[in-house]
Design brief:
Elements: H1 3-22, E1 25-26, E2 30-35, H2 41-52, H3 55-58, E3 67-73, E4 79-85, H4 90-97, E5 106-112, H5 119-130, E6 135-140, H6 149-158, E7 172-174, H7 183-197, E8 200-201, E9 208-217, E10 221-230, E11 232-234, E12 238-241, E13 244-247, E14 250-252, E15 261-263, E16 267-273, E17 282-286, H8 289-304, H9 306-309, E18 317-325, H10 328-339, E19 346-355, H11 360-366, E20 373-377, H12 383-391, E21 395-399, H13 402-416, E22 421-436, E23 441-454, E24 458-463, E25 466-478, E26 481-483, E27 485-487, E28 491-498, E29 507-515
Parallel strand pairs: 2-4, 2-5, 5-6, 6-7, 18-19, 18-20, 20-21
Antiparallel strand pairs: 1-8, 3-4, 9-10, 9-17, 10-16, 11-15, 12-13, 12-17, 14-16, 22-23, 22-29, 23-27, 23-28, 24-25, 24-29, 25-26, 25-28
The structure holds guanosine-5'-diphosphate.
Residues 35, 37-43, 88, 140-141, 143-144, 176-178 line the site of guanosine-5'-diphosphate.
């Protein structure tokens, strides 16, 4: 073998690995604010935005994206950037999390000093813990006369939020989001928590990150807000998220200013996606359109066949569901409604979700299974989509009120749930004597211990709790007379047609088959 044939693969391996490690830099944290409603999340986000956005940047432009960047001067005089997700409420964050992408690095749990720990405080905490990110607590509204910081602290500790100074390590800062007291310190502490995480990124690699928002505009087309978690995004690149992609031609920062490049942890809006990418999906970047198209084709192929997605479970059918709505918030809400439905015998699998009218592509995807259902909410349906769905017997249902979807779907589940057959025991008797009669017919003597036996009943023979045979009762006798049935406590003689060989001591059970 010539030497270069050995050297070449080694060389290319080294050259692709190198930039990852050598050029990494400290990365600003992405922070999410969570907590109970009315505890002051939006007020805090507003205060931070107003006081920390670099003045010349802000210059009259209003924030356009659901995330913003600030520069904070720490008490040591260092200037540090922080990105805030401006999506208060844990539901949005949870829906991002449900797609597996880790968008936030640090969480701030806001708790009102007036109200203390409430239901959504605990829910938020659960979400934070599940995503394994560090968090700090902001005890808010300390300017209010009825604020009681000590009580809030006790309640937090009672809910296993072990605060610093209370035997734990969770940092906490008393603040007033309204007057701004304590907010600087809160940002200092958040940056300290970030430092401990050693967040790093490499500006020289192609950008990757998370989609946090997608919108459809009739004039501008589909745009998405991205948070860059690593690398640099540049004009001329192609962004891919799932099966949606966009050339990076029109890119804006969070203030709506056109920019040519952005790096971690900046939020940017990229306009011109081929379709709406899923909120919470991760994105990556490639250099050419050809590469982008190839990757999208691969992503499409992976989900092309609904049959492949469905694993059959006994006594359970899967309903592949495609959700199309006018806004991603509605898609999330519909998905949430569907997940509330019972799924013992029918499993709902969302195979596609998105914003916009029901397209031919949706109908084709659904055609993989005749069980598929396409749900449209405040959207239209393309003529070709209708045709394809009709041809393949796919159900399309259109709605304009979300709660109606729940009721309609519950009905569908009731209709489509597989009925399975079960056996219900009607009576059981102990066998005391056995005589063989004609071939395959046994004469038994016994006593009914539970329920009753009737002529014609199907029976099974049970020995030491194991079924040893089956058959049916041809005729019954009590004393010397023929009877139709024998009730509990009575002795009887029976002719039973069976191929097995019952023995004294066995149990004979009569049963019927029921559909449930
Ligand atoms: P969210 O639902 O958690 O986003 O709560 P908001 O930020 O909307 O706040 C709910 C109410 O509490 C609003 O009327 C705010 O003005 C008020 N509020 C929030 N933070 C403070 C605070 O620190 N002090 C006082 N006095 N009021 C506050």
């Amino acid at each position: 073998m010539p030497l270069y044939a050995i050297l070449l693969p080694c060389f290319s391996l080294v050259s692709t690995m190198k930039p990852q490690t050598d050029n990494s830099k400290e990365r600003p944290p992405v922070v999410v604010v969570m907590g109970h409603i009315d505890h002051g999340k939006s007020t805090l986000l507003d205060y931070i935005r107003k006081t920390n956005i670099v003045a010349e940047e802000a210059g009259g432009i209003t924030q356009r994206l659901s995330a913003y960047e600030v520069e904070h001067t720490t008490k040591d005089g260092a200037k540090k950037r922080i990105t805030f997700l401006d999506t208060p409420g844990h539901e949005a964050f949870q829906s991002m999390r449900s797609r597996g992408a880790q968008v936030a690095d640090i969480a701030i749990l806001v708790v009102s000093a007036e109200d203390g720990v409430k239901a959504q405080t605990i829910e938020a905490l659960k979400t934070i813990r599940e995503s394994s990110i560090p968090y700090l607590v902001a005890i808010n509204k300390i300017d209010k006369p009825s604020a009681d910081v000590e009580r809030a602290k006790r309640e937090l500790v009672a809910h296993e939020i072990y605060l610093e100074g209370q035997g734990g390590t969770i940092p906490w800062v008393p603040i007033s989001a309204k007057t701004g007291v304590g907010v600087d310190e809160l940002l200092d502490v958040a940056l300290l928590a970030a430092e401990l995480e050693e967040l790093r990124g490499n500006p020289e690699i192609q950008a990757e990150g998370v989609v946090i928002e997608a919108t459809i505009d009739t004039k501008k087309g589909v745009s998405a807000t991205l948070i860059i978690k690593n690398g640099t995004l540049k004009s001329g690149d192609f962004v891919i998220a799932g099966n949606a992609f966009a050339p990076v031609r029109i890119m804006e920062n969070f203030l709506g200013k056109n920019i040519k490049q952005a790096s971690f942890s900046s939020p940017v809006r990229v306009i011109g996606f081929s379709s709406a990418p899923a909120v919470g999906s991760s994105f990556k970047t490639v250099a050419t359109k050809k590469e982008a198209e190839a990757q999208v084709a691969l992503a499409l192929r992976e989900k092309a066949s609904v049959e492949q997605i469905i694993e059959e479970v006994e006594n359970q059918i899967t309903l592949p569901v495609i959700i199309k709505a006018d806004a991603l918030g509605a898609v999330d809400a519909i998905e949430h409604e569907l997940m509330k439905l019972p799924q013992e015998r029918v499993r709902i699998r969302i195979v596609q979700r998105g914003v916009g009218s029901i397209s031919e592509g949706d109908a084709k995807l659904a055609s993989g299974s005749s069980n598929s259902i396409i749900l449209g909410f405040n959207v239209g349906i393309d003529a070709r989509a209708k045709e394809v769905a009709e041809r393949n017997g796919i159900t399309i249902a259109m709605f304009d009120i979300i709660y109606k979807i729940h009721d309609w779907f519950a009905q569908v589940i009731a209709e489509r749930a597989p009925k399975f057959k079960g056996e219900e025991v009607l009576g059981s008797a102990k066998i005391m004597k056995v005589f063989s009669a004609a071939k395959g017919v046994m004469l038994l003597g016994g006593k009914v211990e539970k329920g009753k036996l009737s002529e014609g009943d199907q029976v099974r023979l049970v020995r030491r709790e194991l079924e040893v045979g089956r058959g049916h009762i041809v005729s019954l006798q009590q004393g010397k007379s023929s009877v139709r049935k024998v009730e509990e406590g009575n002795e009887f003689g029976a002719q039973v047609k069976t191929n097995s060989e019952p023995a004294p001591g066995d149990t004979i059970e009569s049963f019927i088959v029921v559909e449930k």
